[in-house]
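Quick one: Antibiotic biosynthesis monooxygenase from Parasphingorhabdus halotolerans, structure tokens please.
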Amino acid sequence: MMLHPAGSIAVIFCAKRTTIDEAGYQEAAAKMSALAKLQPGYLGEDHARTENGLGITISYWKDDSSAKAWRDQPDHAATREKGRDKWYEFYTLHVARVERSYDWQK
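--- reply ---
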């Protein structure tokens, strides 16, 4: 976990997975995570998944234009379409501005 500066953008992706093509999904997810890290303005990401396939990924971006550039990145756009076709029952996406960020660790 890392702190994100005030004014940065959080893209919150909440999705329910299908049971179709687990190996293909895992490969694509790893590829997209690696690709996101190469994008200008990328600040980090957090992930969580339940046993029943509900997952949340939050990616953090320097500003809104960086987040939009990631949305429009061609490989990401193609993978998103594949996800709609095969890997997700549904998803929601929320874009929010980080107002404050705190960290605590034992």
